[in-house]
Amino acid sequence: MRVLDHPEVGEIRLESVLHALADPIRLQIVRFLAQAARGVSCSEIELEVSKSTGTHHYRVLREAGVISQVYRGTAKFNALRRDDLDTLFPGLLDSVVSAIAARR
Amino acid sequence: MRVLDHPEVGEIRLESVLHALADPIRLQIVRFLAQAARGVSCSEIELEVSKSTGTHHYRVLREAGVISQVYRGTAKFNALRRDDLDTLFPGLLDSVVSAIAARR
């Protein structure tokens, strides 16, 4: 089965995480995943962009270390790397998720 | 005296703040300002970039609402907009500053 590349915990860089979060579509994905108790397939998150653009945004999040993506069959399932991020950058993910939720 | 444009508090956007922070030089500036008790002139912060590149980075931070810049004479003095950011995005600035400081 195809396995997607993920940075190791020690390879996750603050700048890359901030860059990955600095986009409204990617924030929408992060917010959705933050509320989910389990892995979520891409098709469950409705984004107002084309499928290929959506795929790009998921990849940016994965390559920065913000989310994990695993194949089940032909679908990719996504989850926040909450433990890794909380360990590396305590409070960062929570403050961003709260800020998204509070946004006007 | 020349006055520089700053976004009003209500105009500060999460994506712009995250984008402004997603750069090693700008994180270096933010870290320095977070430790300063007063406004700091650009020349006090040693950056390993040209003066014009440095000016660009300060402008990105200002236009995103991360810092304020005021002229005193011909020098620009910089300060974090900590109160505004803490009100808009509680915990965000602290978590980023802590993450910079803890970085390997």
UniProtKB/TrEMBL annotation, chains A, B:
Q: Which UniProt keywords apply?
A: DNA-binding, Transcription, Transcription regulation
Is Transcription set as a keyword in this record?
yes
| Domain of life, per lineage | Bacteria
Ranges of residues in domain HTH arsR-type = 6-100
A molecular function GO annotation: DNA-binding transcription factor activity
Q: What is this protein called?
A: Transcriptional regulator
Q: Does the keyword Protein biosynthesis apply?
A: no
Read off the lineage from the record: Bacteria, Bacillati, Actinomycetota, Actinomycetes, Streptosporangiales
